[in-house]
Amino acid sequence: MKVWKAISAVCLLVSTLPANAVTYTVGPIDSGPIDVTSSFNPGYTLIDFNDGTSPFTGGAVISGTTTGQYVAPAGDTTPYFSVGPSTSSPASLALSAINQLSFYWGSIDTYNTISFDGLSQSFSGAIFGGTDSDVSRPSRQVTFYFSPAESAALTGISLSSSSNAFELDNLIFGSAAPEPATWAMMIFGFGAAGVAMRRRRKPATRVSYVV
Question: Which CATH number covers residue 164?
Fold first, then answer.
């Protein structure tokens, strides 16, 4: 019974992996950047832009708000990253072999777009509650998840904005590998499945009785 439970768990794990489309979660409208490091492995990479530098090609690290150019994400009093006509657009960052990516998306606009290079997938700010109204632009924590196939194909991300601006802070990404116990269960489950299949293919032994 334990063997079949393990096999069932493995099958369930495989069946629930995302397929053909990057999945995501959207947090509530926030009043400031939140700590999401607990949802990532210790080996994650966090970019908070506080030192004034950025790993992106394009865009710029700025502070505060300049009317008609960029608006600081709600509650954000530290430097942040901006992409738009006033800071150059698009901005790109090479990334690969990750299965999670998250950031605090400030004053989301419908004309903000994030694209995943290598996957031919893009998402506009409209999907995450973006609006072009100056008084109601939300700021939210947005997290994207990549299946193993998507992680292998991903080559980077591109941020663009046809108007000012795409603002974000606290970019974090990494790979949440299964715990050792989970790996053990998966290996045991696949091994048990193989044994069961071999036994099923073995022909039955016929016994003849001489009367």
Answer: 2.60.120.260
